Task: inverse folding
């Protein structure tokens, strides 16, 4: 009950914050090249932040060239038609910034920021990087070596490596299967010429640019000047009937996973613990069930210390020091999974206990008290993620990019309307223990005796996933 009161009080504070933010709507405009721009004024500090979201993503990587989109995006800072890599980096350093790149399965995000009085200087170099990139062979090779080194070191981070393996197995046959980084084999085959060709897919139409901070009155002209050489993309046809056209919806049909074994043990000699992932392909971000699923998941395993998974597996039986569940939703599909490391000797017990919780959760659902507490917890997580102006704009842009039009008020309003019966329905629909696929990154020799009764089990060497 203490947790419920705690979150209720915090939710009340958030409600006050929501009232403050209710009028905070970004302005939008479209440049002459088709680039859509979001403007969110924040005069609290003398800074300006630019964030570009482009549809170039890992699903656009050609077969056997996985990692190409990420390689191209990270190579952008390695020189333009007029500047060497060192000259570009030096100019960015003078402005107190660097180019940040996040390559994902749905989009690539590129961002820079600086003090507000340097806005024009930053825009000049940012625009040049985006519109006049030059992929010299030695510079592309430099990024390739960095990426290959990161992939080689992945097994040293058991959690990150197990995630990579889990995606590869669960999304088998789907473009989401491969990591945006690619693999050692695919990266080594990519040439500078192929990177240059792929760069042509980086176009303004379909991309979104966010500007946050002290925004100058002549921002439109500055943006037009900075991106005047950037063209391309599909031109949206306008007409009387275009208003009635519906955007294509992402499929919610689960992938066919008949050939995926129920258990996969990824063997690496000398592993001192087992890192476990348990889950299945789930709903995309556009699903009508998304909010109810997230709230159910807070109670199940994504919330505070009193989640069902935490209380049973960690607190009651002491099988792990950390366990949680995650709903990762993309445009085309989603992924629901449980994450936990555990001792070698209790690997099977940790899995069985977790599966029992899924089954009980499916059967019993949640109480009204748990629903109320979960809503308040979720509100607080939203508030924390919206703390900075650039974060608020970034989240809104990503939702818009995915075909949704939400702000913080909309999310809170949808949360308030969510009823217990809605959540119970989603639990019955999605929390299915028979759908769970289990991946274990461990020393097979140390744990194999625990799985003698499992017929549907496959053992793989860890090198296969690098």
Result:
């Amino acid at each position: 009950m203490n947790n419920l009161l705690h979150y209720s009080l915090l939710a009340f504070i958030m409600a006050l914050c929501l009232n403050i933010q209710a009028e905070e709507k970004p302005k939008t405009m479209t440049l002459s090249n088709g680039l859509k721009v979001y403007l969110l004024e924040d005069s609290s500090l003398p800074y300006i932040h630019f964030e570009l979201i482009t549809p170039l993503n890992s699903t656009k990587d050609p077969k056997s060239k996985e990692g190409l989109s990420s390689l191209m995006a990270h190579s952008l800072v390695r020189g333009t038609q007029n500047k060497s890599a060192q000259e570009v980096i030096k100019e960015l350093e003078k402005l107190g910034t660097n180019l940040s790149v996040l390559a994902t399965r749905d989009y690539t995000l590129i961002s820079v920021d600086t003090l507000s009085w340097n806005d024009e200087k930053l825009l000049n170099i940012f625009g040049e990087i985006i519109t006049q990139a030059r992929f010299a062979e030695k510079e592309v090779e430099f990024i390739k070596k960095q990426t290959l080194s990161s992939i080689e070191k992945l097994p040293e981070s058991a959690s990150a490596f197990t995630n990579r393996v889990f995606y590869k197995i669960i999304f088998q046959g789907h473009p989401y299967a491969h990591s945006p980084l690619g693999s050692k084999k695919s990266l080594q085959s990519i040439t500078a010429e192929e990177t240059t060709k792929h760069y042509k897919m980086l176009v303004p139409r379909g991309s979104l640019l966010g500007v946050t901070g002290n925004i100058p009155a002549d921002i439109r002209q500055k943006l037009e000047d900075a991106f005047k050489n950037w063209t391309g993309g599909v031109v949206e046809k306008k007409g009387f009937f275009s208003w009635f056209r519906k955007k294509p919806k992402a499929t919610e049909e689960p992938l066919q996973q008949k050939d995926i074994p129920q258990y996969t043990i990824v063997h690496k000699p000398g592993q001192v613990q087992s890192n476990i992932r348990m889950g299945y392909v789930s709903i995309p971000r556009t699903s009508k069930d998304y909010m109810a699923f997230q709230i159910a998941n807070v109670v199940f395993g994504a919330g505070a210390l009193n989640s069902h998974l935490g209380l049973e597996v960690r607190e009651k039986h002491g099988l792990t020091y950390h366990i949680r569940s995650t709903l990762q939703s993309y445009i085309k599909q989603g992924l629901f999974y449980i994450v936990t490391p555990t001792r070698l000797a209790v690997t099977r017990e940790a899995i069985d206990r977790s599966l029992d919780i899924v089954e009980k959760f499916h059967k019993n659902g949640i109480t009204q008290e748990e629903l109320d507490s979960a809503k308040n917890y979720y509100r607080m997580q939203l508030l924390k993620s919206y703390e900075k102006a650039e974060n608020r704009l970034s989240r809104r842009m990503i939702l818009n990019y995915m075909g949704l039009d939400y702000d913080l008020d909309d999310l809170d309003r949808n949360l308030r309307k969510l009823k217990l019966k809605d959540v119970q329905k989603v639990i019955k629909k999605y929390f299915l223990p028979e759908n769970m696929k289990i991946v274990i990154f461990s020393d097979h020799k140390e744990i194999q005796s625990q799985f003698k009764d499992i017929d549907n089990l496959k053992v793989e060497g860890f090198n296969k996933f690098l």
Notes: Residues 1-9, 11-23, 238-253 have pLDDT under 50 and may be disordered. Residues 299 and 307 are 5 Å apart (CA to CA). The first strand starts at residue 27 and ends at 30.
